[in-house]
């Protein structure tokens, strides 16, 4: 049984995604032009045809209207008969957060599993304000609201911010948090990787934290250095708290998806593969893994 713990669905006519509409504009993860097309359950199934995927998790993907995104993903998944958990976009600093979460839950029709609000992306896009949310008391209160609602938080940030984030999230021990894309160790220098590993261990000390083996295609586009990333994750979290995600369709900008999947499988010890590639995501996101 395989569960894809991190991917994206989108439909260019149903929902507006400003970054997908900006043709010819490179992003930190690469040039999105090849993926400026609808990507839904049929495309996802075609990409995963060679593996026994039973369920998946859609992660918010920069829609102009977060509620429209949640509503479309829920409708699309229902029409396709696909079991998907939805991690929606929400502003944790908003005074309307509790109402916003309730609205997402209603639109998701039983599929809402959590929220992602990106803390940092990449030094080329973040600028001097990187990590500002971590220093905002309203964000900390928002994390408490999420925990009280029984929802999870998907955390995307850069490796340099991991230690700071560990202190912020450590103040909300009831919150379950998934660290996206291995904690994004963009700085592949010896010093950068050392800081990332230190922050990773600090974050792994949080009782509700898991880490995603995802984003390797964009983090290391030629595949060099992915072993060091996997080794760092295994040392800090082990296989019991690691979730694999394809990051489809974004990661396939750099290497064929089947090659990325085989690479990820090879990075995980055989004894832990069932958990990393299925059981952990199903448990963390409370997913239905019956054959769709």
From TrEMBL:
Q: Which molecular-function annotations from GO does this UniProt entry contain?
A: hydrolase activity
Q: Which residues form the signal peptide?
A: none
Could you confirm whether the keyword Transferase appears in this record? no
Which keywords belong to this entry?
Answer: Hydrolase
| Domain of life, per lineage | Bacteria
Its family remark reads: Belongs to the metallo-dependent hydrolases superfamily.
Q: What is this protein called?
A: Amidohydrolase family protein
